Amino acid sequence: MATSKHSKGQNVLVAKQLIAATAKHLTNSTPVAFAGSSFTADQIASKLQVLVNLRADVDSAKAAVKAKVSAEVTQSPPALAFMSAFRSFLKVHFSTSPDVLADFGINPKARAPVSVEAKAAAVAKRAATRAARHTLDRSKSRGSKAPSPASL
Question: Within 13 Å, how many C-alpha atoms sit on residue 44's CB side?
Answer without folding.
Answer: 26
